[in-house]
Amino acid sequence: MFVYSLSGLHVQGQELQADIELEDNATTARLGVYQLLSRLVAPPDGDVYAAAAAGEWPGRLSEAGKLLPYSMDFGEANVPGSLSQEAFEAEYLRLFEVGDGVGGPGLPLFGGVYGGDRIQRLEEVVRFYEYFGLTTSAEDPRPADCLSTELEFMKYLTYKEASTPSDRLRTSFRRAQHDFLERQLAWLPEVVRRAPEFRPLAFWQWAIETVSGFATADAAYARAACA
Question: What confidence tens digit (pLDDT) does each residue in 204-225 have?
Fold first, then answer.
């Protein structure tokens, strides 16, 4: 059984039980991968570092996605044994949040940065969240267009698809997934394209390529499912 925790999500106007059991299937596999990817690209802690040092992240993703309705190779990734947790976290900050001290990070993980008016993009993503009764957490300082938050939203949409008994609602949640992937996560290949310029640690290069590759594959699946 797949157990999906709703902790960390603020759902307006309703209280939800902490854990809900769902039968393992293609939808919960997609959900599980989104859940792990959201954690992977959030600011790392000791658990993320330990799994990276042990080379466990690809295996965790493969295990979560073993029932995916399409083929997905999560490759291999680890970090040098000599790399400390502090250096691992510092590299994340350099690439994605702070940069080298001038001009900000080279690869910000905020969708609104990549093309168009960021304020407009932020408003669009917030409208997506609000339509499904979600708000960003008051305890979480990340903006609404943060990649980790957007992947968390995809996790929520796939959870809603997996847990509803209504065919009509399942179709509605699939269409929402398709729309969000096409409109709010299409910037990921640009991050992958830019990455070599900033000489990332191989693990973080793998991480962004993996997120982008999965989002691309899942968008194709969602598009076909909505046809």
Answer: 999 999 999 999 999 999 999 8
